[in-house]
Every structure is written in C-alpha cells, then in structure tokens.
Write a structure and sequence with these properties.
With about 325 residues, this protein is α+β, with helices and mostly antiparallel strands. The protein contains eight helices and 13 strands. The strands form two sheets. An eight-stranded mixed β-sheet has the order 2-1-3-4-5-6-7-8, sandwiched between helices. A five-stranded mixed β-sheet has the order 10-9-11-13-12, sandwiched between helices. Strand 6 and strand 7 form a beta hairpin.
C-alpha cells in the first residue's frame, strides 16, 4: 500500500478485505486517533510551558499524579464512550472497570489502556506514549464484568500505541502485521510511514534499569552480564539504552532490534514481579512485538499465554528481538 495514505484510509481498506466486518472495530481505532491528537496537543503545551500544571497527591504508582495524566485518561474515556461499540473500558489509572454511560449504546469490545506511559519523563522532554489493547468480550451480560476483561494476551483483536516525542507516531496491529503512521502536523493526519514493520532477529542494544542489579536473582544478573561481556563472534558487548519509558524503549527496539528487560526484583516487597502491568501495558506491546517477529517472555513463560488474575497484575518482562530473548530465557532456565 502506498505510503502517505491516512490511518483512517488504511483501516477502512483493511475493513473492506473482511466481508464480515461491521465497522465497529474501525470506529474504535478511528476514535483512538482523535484522542491521541488531543493528547499530543496537550503534551506540546506542557513541554513548552514552565507551568506544567501538576497536582501532588499520593499514588501507589509514582507518588505524584500529574494533571496531564488525568487529562489523557479522561480524554480517552470521553472520546470512546460514545462510539457505541464498547462493553466497558479499563485503565491503568482506574481500580475498577469503566462503564459506558447509559445514554450511549454498548457493543462487544473491551478497550484496555495506559493513558500516558513514561509520564515522569515529561519535564525533561523525553518521549512518552499511550498504549491500548482491544478484546471481544466473552460474556453475554449487558454490562461489562471483570471476568470479561481478564483475557490472555493471545485473545487480543488489536493493540497499539501512540508515541509523543520529536514526532508523533501511531503503531498498531490487528493480528496481521504491524504498521506505523506518523502525524503530519500541517494537515493533522496520521500518514502511513512504516508498513509491515519487521523487528530484526538480533539486536545490538539492551534496555534495563541496572540500578536494580543487586535486587535481581543471580540468573537474571547472568543475563545482563552476558549482554555486557565482549565477544566479537556474537557481536557483544551490546550497548545500553534505557529511557525509563517502556513504550519508548520497545518502539526503538521494534525498529532497530534489541532486548528490553524489567525482571522481578526484591527492591519493593509490594511489587515482587516488577512494576509493569500485564493487561494495560505488557500484553499490548507483547502482541505488537510478536506480530513484528519478536518474542515476549517472563523469562520462563510466553507473556501472551498468561491468564490474568486481576486487572493490575504485574509480571517480569523480557521482550524484543527473538534471538536475544531466547538467550535470556536459556540463561534464566539454566540451559546456557
């Protein structure tokens, strides 16, 4: 397909290839792009202003909740509530499911999202992003139930993310390849720029918070030492590249190859499996990575096979180029 077509045109062309399509799915994706444009404008204003307009309050996640984060969350909820295609929504910021107001129609899809991943990087002008995942609901109840939202990742019908950085990009998959669109500010449209993204089988970089080194188990430390150890035959040492923004690091590795790691650690007893949430952060990016030819693992299990036990469950993550992730799995499981 020709580069430069809009994301809406691309989505509609894919819809025509599926005679059973009703247009509901297309409406959800189209409305997500509108929400992302609104969020991108707000991010720009925050980056250009000394007054970031933050409020301080205790939060289990970061300790500080910024109004920008709340704005992104409410923008997605408000824009997607009225499409008439969703049974319910779930957000990283909300403890429970988000119901659809009675005045709007409901449908058979569930949207799960992280409104602004990497938000703590906003004041230093680093890229941040919105991550989303779409499932078909399982139950026949009129309103969404928690059990409907707790799907294993392989049941996703679509997943994607929006990056707000030096340029604005949308990357998404519906289970048939991964495609990227770059926002053209002069016309306000996301245009096809990266069709059928394929992640290199082997990378040259590793992304991990090495400040947690002494809180990892020994076999995880061995993984890091492997990628740091010089060996010309295997192209080592790898270069360290870690931003503290999950979606940003995965986006770089998706295009250039490499491995992202956030292992379980003993630093915070309340988060023994790490900080990343399975349903609203890890599953969507795992789906994208695997659709691009990569691999997503906990070190011992395929992430997309995990059955979530609750909405905000956290899991260890080893994700990226397939050869690199397999090496990490082999070391962790004592096969190497």
């Amino acid at each position: 397909m020709a580069k430069g077509i809009t994301v809406t045109e691309f989505i509609l062309s894919r819809q025509k290839e599926q005679p059973e399509a009703t247009g509901a799915f297309t409406s959800i994706l189209s409305e997500l792009t509108v929400a992302a444009k609104i969020i991108a404008q707000k991010v720009d204003k925050a980056n250009l202003s000394d007054a970031l307009d933050t409020i301080e309050s205790m939060s289990g996640e970061e300790g500080v909740v910024q109004k920008l984060h709340e704005f992104a969350n409410s923008t997605i909820v408000n824009r997607l509530s009225h499409v008439g295609c969703l049974s319910c929504m779930a957000s990283k910021m909300n403890t429970d499911l988000i119901s659809i107001p009675k005045k709007y129609g409901t449908g058979n899809y569930i949207l799960i999202f992280d409104p602004l991943g990497g938000i703590t990087n906003i004041d230093v002008h680093m890229a941040i992003g919105t991550v989303f995942s779409i499932f078909r609901k399982r139950g026949i109840a009129e309103f969404g139930l928690m059990a409907d939202a707790l799907h294993p990742g392989y049941e996703q019908v679509a997943a994607g993310y929006f990056i707000y950085g030096s340029s604005r990009m949308m990357v998404y998959t519906t289970g048939n390849g991964v495609h990227g669109f770059t926002l053209q500010p002069s016309i306000g449209e996301f245009l096809l720029s990266h069709e059928n993204i394929c992640m290199p089988k082997k990378g040259k970089t590793y992304s991990v918070n090495e400040g947690n080194y002494y809180f990892w188990e020994e076999n995880v430390r061995d993984v890091i030492e492997y990628f740091k150890t010089p060996d010309l035959k295997t192209g080592r040492p790898y270069t360290a590249r870690y931003t503290g923004s999950f979606v940003t690091d995965i986006h770089r590795n998706l295009l250039k190859g490499g491995i992202y790691m956030y292992p379980a650690n003993s630093k915070d007893p309340s988060k023994p499996h790490g900080k990343l949430m399975l349903t609203c952060e890890v599953n969507p990016l795992a789906f994208i990575v695997e659709q691009a030819g990569g691999l997503a693992s906990t070190g011992t299990e395929r992430i997309l096979d995990l059955e979530p036990r609750h909405l905000h469950e956290r899991v260890p993550v080893f994700m990226g180029s397939i050869d690199d992730v397999r090496i990490a799995e082999d070391i962790i499981q004592g096969r190497r």
